[in-house]
Design goal:
With 350 residues, the chain is α+β, with helices and mostly antiparallel strands. It folds into 3 domains: 144 residues, Methyltransferase, Cobalt-precorrin-4 Transmethylase, Domain 2 (2-Layer Sandwich), CATH 3.30.950; 73 residues, no CATH class; 104 residues, no CATH class. The strands form 5 sheets. It has a 4-stranded mixed β-sheet. A hairpin with a 2-residue loop joins β8 and β9. α9 crosses α10. It is globular.
Amino acid sequence: MIELISRIEKPYETEVVELKEAKHDFSFKDLGRYFSALSNEAVLRGKQDAWLLFGIDNDKAVYGTAYRRDNPTKLQSLKREVAGHTNNRMTFREIHELEIEGKRVLAFQISAATPGMPTAFNNAAWAREGESLVPLPIDKYEQIRQMRRPDWSASEVEGATYDDLDPEAVRRAVELFLSKHGRHRDAFAGMNDRAILDKASLTRDGKITPTALILIGRPESIHLLGDISPRITWTLYASDGSVTTYEHFKPPFLLAVDRVLGKIRNERYRFNANGASLFPIEVSQYEPEIIRELLNNCIAHQDYSMQGRVNVEEFEDHLVFLNEGAFIPETIEKAMRPGFKPSYYRNPFL
């Protein structure tokens, strides 16, 4: 970190570093604007991170900062505070406390904006022009919007082999694929399971993908995805909001979705549609296909880089489905417009 600071020159080689004295305090509004600007500039310049440094001025003179020094918990809570004001709940990757020349310096590590989605703070996106903070110009906005990051879900998982796939899930995947393409079943008659998994876009050229591990992988093979640990958690709440019970479900998710569905209490109700009748209509509280569709969407559109999980929360009279990552259409109103199509999908292969 100190080596990074020592390499900073003026004028800056890039616009992904901002130095501030911030001797005692700093406006939260300005902090959020710099977060937005630096995040957007980082993605435009192909950088993984940008930096906001407190306690150093533009001439690299070290003054030190007392910003939130008296309460370390309050300093780290800044991550949550910033996430509550960004459009995609982005926040600092890390907040580093350093000692330089015997003085306290804070280095805020800011992740680059998500390709296709400029980082905004309080619904406004910002950028930098030299050392000035400015609203994100339309040309930069469009440049970020048109960016596409590589499809993580289609990449090859290093070290993964066919033995890392769950045999029961593989059989189920093959059955579903052949059922869907029943008219062409004869064309697949001579293919083995490995070839069919390629056709089903679970594997790619025989290579194991994150998609394959998530949907049909063995639970013990998920470590091959590194820090990413896919999981579905079902939680049942009592009428007072307390947790009654819960259960975690690991991949293969192709099988897990039905197990989660089996946990949900789906009572049958009887009612008379046209007054008194000896033949009341019976209906389920929830339509199973809707539950399965919602759960599949949570799995498909999860931002797995956030290392979170899919949550299914069951209350007495409703269900809540939660996954990690920003809502790509940004608003429900936009998604409901006739003919709407999202500009991109987060995990196209998945």
